[in-house]
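Hi V.,

You were right to ask for the full record rather than a summary. Here it is.
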Amino acid sequence: MSWPRRLTPVQQVGQLLWIGFEGTSLTSALARLLRDVQPGAVILFGRNLPPEARRLRGLTDAIYRTVAIPPFIALDQEGGRVSRLRTTIGPTLTGAALGARGDAPRAVRRHAEASALALRTLGFNVNFAPVLDLSRPEADNGIGDRAYGDDPLTVSRLAGIFAATHSRAGVVPVGKHFPGLGPAVGDTHAVLPVVRTPRAALLRRDLLPYRRLRRALPMVMIGHACYPGIQDRDDQPASLSAAIVTNLLRGTLDYRGLVLTDDLEMGAIDQTLGAGALAVAAFRAGSDGLMFCKSEERIRGAAATLLEAARDGRITPARLRASLRRIAALKRRMLVARRRPRFTAGGIARARALFGDLGPAPVFGADPTARP
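Predicted structure:
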């Protein structure tokens, strides 16, 4: 697949959309949705994964062939509870378990190598990891043992190793959840947490990993908590806030990579606003990628409204071009310039062996990111 010389208006707004779907195969309905919307990325969840590795690779290949512009194909493969590929590669260590080891840097590198090998073999090119949140395992913030720890220097170092290892292997790492869910009480999948940590304290602790890794992370995901110390309000998720995305991430931190929202169908978001209004608001706040993980109705509504907004001026040509340039640059570097590897059972076996070398990986608790 190559990058087209010119994008149609539908393709332009489609590049902004990261979409999920139902089922474990490329049905005629899914193919029609992909051709109509022309999404920039497709996200797979546990509900989408066939149990056999070869069938899963067949699904990602079919998706890749159906979208005219090379799509990002993504999933959450952090390890521990958040491991979409557990059936294929077995249990894997949590971020907390990796961060607590005496050989943590080596273990994180091995974990990232094994994850990237499995992902590439199965046809994925984006992983929603590493977690940059600062958290203890017992914290009630939706993160817990998904984090490498609650020390910002340790998290920066280990997340940097993970991100660099993925990038070298041809998988785009995504740092999350900006500006940090560590201080939150409550899970953004269900509620809108209000983090009242002052701006200076956030810059000193929770934002330190983003400051240190701003050139190492090709993509950052915006979380859905609210930060009154930055936003001057307590009723708006960070993903819809220009104060967070444009002023803080792009401005203060000088981040130049892609910015992606977390799922705009989550409980922290007021769904009465409608998918189209949410998509436009998140884009105007500064994000390049707008995520809708399940509902075809919401996906189509968002696509239609974005197209209208591009035509009526709510989305300016200059702002749209800026996002499309960032998307195209990353896709050319990580997708177009790299051939999709062939599927081999040996690649999966090697990944399982690498994970096995890290020792037993018991999994406790539910996956908060699952979308049944």
